[in-house]
Design brief:
A five-stranded parallel beta sheet has the order 2-1-3-4-5, with helices on both faces. The protein is elongated and about 100 Å long. It is an alpha/beta fold. The protein is built from 15 helices and five strands. It has two domains: 132 residues, Rossmann fold (3-Layer(aba) Sandwich), CATH 3.40.50.2300; 180 residues, Hypothetical protein af1432 (Orthogonal Bundle), CATH 1.10.3210.
Length: 356
């Protein structure tokens, strides 16, 4: 009983009723108004027809075998794919409880049998107009979301280019930072994952952490490249790279640069308050900087410097976990230290893969 001729602009209305006379009546009335009809004789068949080709509107009889109209309506409104299809419940029942139940099931409107032709057409037209407007808003909102997502992606790419430029500038000042900053990105994500931090935090720290020493751009070359130990005066100047880096990154709106600022300023702070530049303690130290601190310490122990040899993984792990007099376990956030110990083998793999 279906009209199979379909023009692209023709609206489809599904009619579900177990009475063949009613089906013929609705079919005739709706087609006379230019609508395409799809017919079903029970609730289960109605759900099948909707699944095959979702209509623009549904006329749904209440009293049907297998599954009544209330159940069909509730099922359709619980499904994300069919939730927005308007439903008109058609029933001989005229009591208040049945009408309330129809609305509770999700029906947008209802008609009482015998159905008046003019009332039927007006209600169908009104609901179809609302559906068209609702679809327009949904499509418009999706278009806006796509544009925002594209713009956000462009901004993220721009921020990452800025980060790359700044870290490359730092590499020109300190030749040892090239592979170091690459390893740091992966170290920090490894610990953040172990700590159960979300994907947004992991993405941000991956790109923010390489900026931790960007302040070294402002340190004189004769100090930065000195092969021996620093004098007290030189050490005082060297320690200013934290504040210099934070100042360089201050005022940015990018989440990468904002986290980069807090890491640059605080990655030499220690859990027990013995770090610099502010002597922060415990949770007063930004979380990102606490993660960065232990990653930076591990990589420094593993790397060869003019004043020290490179240490093997096992020794670096031992120093961080147990201490050696200069580096002590209470320098680190206990939770971050525990996460580091748990994923230390991954640090070793990262160091080997991204060696100088």
């Amino acid at each position: 009983m279906n009209n199979q001729s379909l023009e692209p602009h023709v609206v489809t209305v599904l009619v579900a009723d177990d009475d063949e006379r009613n089906l013929k009546l609705f079919d005739s009335l709706l087609q006379a108004e230019g609508y395409r009809t799809v017919l079903a004789t029970d609730g289960l068949e109605a759900l099948q027809r909707v699944a095959e080709n979702p209509p623009s509107l549904i006329l749904l009889d209440v009293m049907m075998p297998e599954m009544d109209g209330f159940e069909v309506a509730a099922h359709l409104k619980q499904d994300e794919r069919t939730r927005t299809i308007p439903i008109i419940m058609v029933t001989a029942l005229d009591d208040r409880a049945s009408r309330l139940r129809a609305l509770e099931a999700g029906a947008e409107d209802f008609l009482t049998k015998p159905v008046d032709r003019a009332e039927l057409i007006v209600r169908v037209r009104n609901l179809l107009k609302l559906k068209e407007y609702s679809d327009f808003l949904a499509n418009y909102n999706q278009m806006l979301e796509d544009q925002v997502r594209e713009r956000t992606s462009q901004l993220a790419s721009s921020y990452r280019e800025t980060i790359f430029t700044m870290t490359r500038a730092a590499e020109y000042k300190d030749e040892e930072t090239g592979a170091h900053v690459r390893r740091i990105s992966f170290y920090t994500v490894e610990i953040a994952s172990r700590l159960g931090l979300d994907a947004e935090f992991r993405d941000t720290i991956h790109y923010a952490s390489p900026m931790h020493d960007v302040g070294k751009i402002g340190i004189p070359d004769h100090i930065l490249g000195k092969p021996g130990s620093f004098t007290p005066e030189e050490w005082s100047i060297m320690k200013t790279h934290s504040a210099l880096g934070a100042k360089l990154l201050a005022g940015a709106t990018s989440p990468y640069l904002k986290m980069g600022e807090e890491i640059a300023l605080s990655h030499h702070e220690r859990w027990d308050g013995s770090g610099y530049p502010l002597g922060l303690t415990g949770e007063h130290i930004p979380y990102s900087a606490r993660i960065m601190n232990i990653c930076d310490q591990y990589d420094a122990l593993r790397s060869k410097r003019p004043y020290k040899p490179a240490l093997p993984h096992e020794r670096a792990l031992e120093i961080i976990a147990a201490g050696d007099g200069r580096t002590l376990p209470w320098h680190f956030d206990p939770a971050v230290l525990a996460a580091f110990v748990q994923c230390a083998s991954s640090f070793n793999d990262i160091y080997a893969e991204h060696s100088d």
